[in-house]
């Protein structure tokens, strides 16, 4: 899929729910951001930290997840999904065989809807073998 196709997919599947603030899709084998919502920029340090977060879920639960200056407290971490929050905002990371999806939400949004949308998109990529 081309970059703009992936961006459209992220927008239609996640942003359009009204419960995802920002999102991105990272290819695991080369740590490249394949697509992201408008204005959501991840540093290579953040991308590599997201990749590492799945390697040791117990450490991730202890350490939390950092995006920019914010450290999110992890309340779920396993080899497929990491959920973390800070006060009334949060981040969801979901891993497929070749990708990592990242989504953030704010206090005006329902975390459960954000999680459901991200997990559903991850299932779509798994069905496609991605």
- Return the average pLDDT rounded to an integer: 95
Most strands sheet: 7 strands, antiparallel
Radius of gyration: 13 Å
Number of helices: 4
Order of strands across the main sheet: 2-1-7-6-5-4-3
Q: Determine the N-to-C terminus distance.
A: 11 Å
The helical percent reads 25-40%
Strand content: 25-35%
SS elements, strand count: 7
Low-confidence stretches: none
Can you tell me the overall shape?
globular
Question: Secondary-structure element order, as H and E?
Answer: HEEHHEEEEEH
Structural class computed from helices and strand pairing: alpha+beta
If you had to describe this structure to a student in words, what would you say it looks like?
With 130 residues, the protein is α+β, with helices and mostly antiparallel strands. It contains four helices and seven strands; from the N terminus they run αββααβββββα. The protein has helices spanning 3-13, 44-53, 57-63, 111-127; strands at residues 22-27, 32-36, 65-67, 70-77, 81-86, 89-95, 99-105. Strands 2-1-7-6-5-4-3 form a seven-stranded antiparallel beta sheet, with helices on both faces. The longest helix has 17 residues, at 111-127. 32% of the residues are buried.
In short:
By secondary structure, this protein is of the alpha+beta class.
What is the fold's blueprint, element by element?
Blueprint: H1 3-13, E1 22-27, E2 32-36, H2 44-53, H3 57-63, E3 65-67, E4 70-77, E5 81-86, E6 89-95, E7 99-105, H4 111-127
Antiparallel strand pairs: 1-2, 1-7, 3-4, 4-5, 5-6, 6-7
């Amino acid at each position: 899929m081309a970059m703009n196709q992936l961006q459209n997919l992220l927008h239609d599947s996640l942003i359009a729910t009204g419960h995802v603030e920002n999102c991105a899709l990272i290819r695991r084998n080369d740590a490249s951001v394949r697509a992201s919502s408008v204005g959501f920029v991840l540093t290579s340090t953040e991308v590599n930290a997201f990749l590492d977060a799945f390697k040791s879920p117990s450490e991730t639960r202890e350490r939390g997840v950092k995006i920019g200056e914010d450290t999110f407290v992890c309340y779920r971490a396993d080899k497929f999904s990491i959920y973390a929050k800070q006060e009334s905002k949060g981040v969801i990371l979901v891993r497929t065989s070749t990708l990592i999806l990242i989504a953030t939400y704010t206090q005006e949004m329902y975390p459960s809807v954000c999680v459901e949308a991200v997990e559903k998109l991850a299932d779509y990529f798994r069905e496609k073998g991605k």
